[in-house]
Amino acid sequence: DKKIYVPGYSYTEVGRNLFPKNDVLKDEVFDQRFLAIILDTSNHRRISDERYKKAAYIIKIDHHPDGDAYGDINLVMPEAGAAAELLYTLFRTKAFRKYPIPDEVARYLYVGIVGDTGRFQYSAATAHTLKCAAELYQYDFDPQKDVYYPIYNKPLSDFEAVRTVMNNFRLSEDGVAYYILTQKELERLKIDADEGKAYLYLFNYCDEILVWCSFCEDKRRGDWRGSLRSRDVTVNEVASHFRGGGHRLAAGCRPKNRQEIKQCVAELGQEIKKMGVK
Q1: Three-class DSSP category at 26
Q2: 158-275 maps to which CATH number?
């Protein structure tokens, strides 16, 4: 007779209609005794709802290599390409195998693996990642119709966002490309701070760009949402200097202002020089 709630941000980066909307909960819901299960979040600063602190017990399930041990149980598997891969691995253990995975849940897990590994392009994707995806592929859902089309189908208005990013990105002398979207620009483009990083893919395959980043203003939190990407340069250490963290080649951060954005870009440039990446 347990009640299960899913608070936090509704995830829209890889498709607006792939997942149910998150629950909007009143404070009194958190006044009763509850268990908090926190997924895919490396450190406590990145947890989207501060009310998790009221939990009687916390379980952290994550695949990021760095971060805080903020849970009473911390199930961390850095070798997993996605938190969804870790969850599926857990569900196939002897303790959980007796509980069948519904087709809808299998689709969610498949989406999680596809999204977090960039369609299996990122170095985090392993043979085990592909094995998990192959097993999930056998469930009753249509990968083209129910996964790939919702993820990659874009409205015509999306081209305006692409044009804005390509016309306004900057490239430092060290090879750091970055774009900044203010709250006013996000409102004009009809996207939010989370969706603003979706255009980082535009910079994935350019030899002159060694690190690429997005910085989107988040008026609700009063700071900026930063996303850092690279092929060879370590970025999560720099991210940790700005209230963030993540994987070695893909991380997030929360700069307080434009000055910190400038400092973040400068530190990434220093990291390029230190590693001697060309």
Answers
A1: coil
A2: 3.10.310.30
Q: Quick one: angle between helices 83-91 and 103-116, nearest 10?
A: 140
pTM for the model: 0.77
pLDDT tens digits, residue range 141-200?
999 999 999 888 888 888 999 999 999 999 999 999 999 999 999 999 999 898 899 999
Residue the block writes with tokens 């044009």: 163
Q: Indicate the angle between helix axes 127-137 and 83-91, nearest 10 degrees.
A: 70
Query: Is residue 148 packed enough to be buried (19+ CB in 10 Å), middle (13-18) or exposed (0-12)?
Result: middle
27-151 folds as: inorganic pyrophosphatase (n-terminal core) (3.90.1640)
* Domain chopping of the chain, boundaries: 27-151, 158-275
